[in-house]
Design goal:
With 217 residues, this protein is an all-alpha fold. 73% of the residues lie in helices and 0% in strands. The longest helix has 31 residues.
Length: 217
């Protein structure tokens, strides 16, 4: 059973995730076009925005059940934990790509510490990681949960390759804004992203389950 202390900590952080993400997204429509002058509508083509929104939704779901648990003691369903796992895995990929690829190639000050990027690329993923691994240790997550955890990256990757490679910017598609098709090696980028997502999911699951087992003792 999750302690009330951990539940309250998790609930507070989940509320911060929801409020901060909504605030950043709304700011896109009020002049926050960032260092790269990205229009509001195009923001939703970015994996950063999509993964943060996904994690926000799963944090909101978890928060709802945490409030219910604090009020009447009803157990937080395992599905809520799995959904949070999916959201945090997606957002962890954002963090990893920024730290190990976009930061070195585009500049850390802009990608990590520039304006609202400090939340979307850094603080948001950290908050999601902390809650899932250290405060939401209610249920053991099976290896089967790795499959839904990979769906967001796979779905976005499919859309990105379609718009960048198969349709192309000249035909109304997207410019290769992440540089994943540099040299025409988009297929290598796809394999790396899928393996990275699988590895991140496995690591998150391992940490979560270890803390859950300790919590049950």
């Amino acid at each position: 059973m999750l302690s009330k202390k951990n539940t309250i900590i998790s609930l507070v952080i989940n509320c911060i995730i929801v409020i901060a993400t909504i605030g950043v997204v709304i700011s896109y429509f009020f002049g926050n076009d960032g260092q790269y002058k990205i229009p509001p509508s195009f923001r939703f083509n970015l994996y950063t925005t999509d993964s943060n929104i996904l994690c926000m939704l799963t944090a909101a779901i978890m928060g709802f059940f945490e409030i219910r648990y604090l009020i009447n003691g009803r157990e937080i369903p395992k599905l809520a934990v799995i959904l949070k796992f999916v959201g945090v895995t997606a957002l962890s990929l954002t963090f990893t790509v920024v730290i190990f690829f976009l930061g070195p190639t585009m500049g850390f000050m802009d990608m990590v510490f520039g304006g609202t990027s400090v939340y979307m690329h850094f603080a948001g993923p950290i908050l999601g990681f902390v809650t899932f691994c250290f405060t939401e240790n209610i249920h053991i997550i099976s290896k089967k949960a790795l499959i839904p955890a990979m769906i967001p990256a796979a779905a976005y990757g499919t859309a990105y390759v379609t718009m960048v490679v198969f349709i192309g910017e000249k035909n109304g598609g997207w410019i290769d804004f992440y540089g994943f098709n540099t040299g025409g090696f988009w297929y290598i980028s796809c394999v790396v992203i899928i393996l990275a997502t699988l590895g991140l999911g496995a690591l998150l699951r391992l940490l979560h389950n270890k803390m859950s087992k300790n919590n049950s003792k």
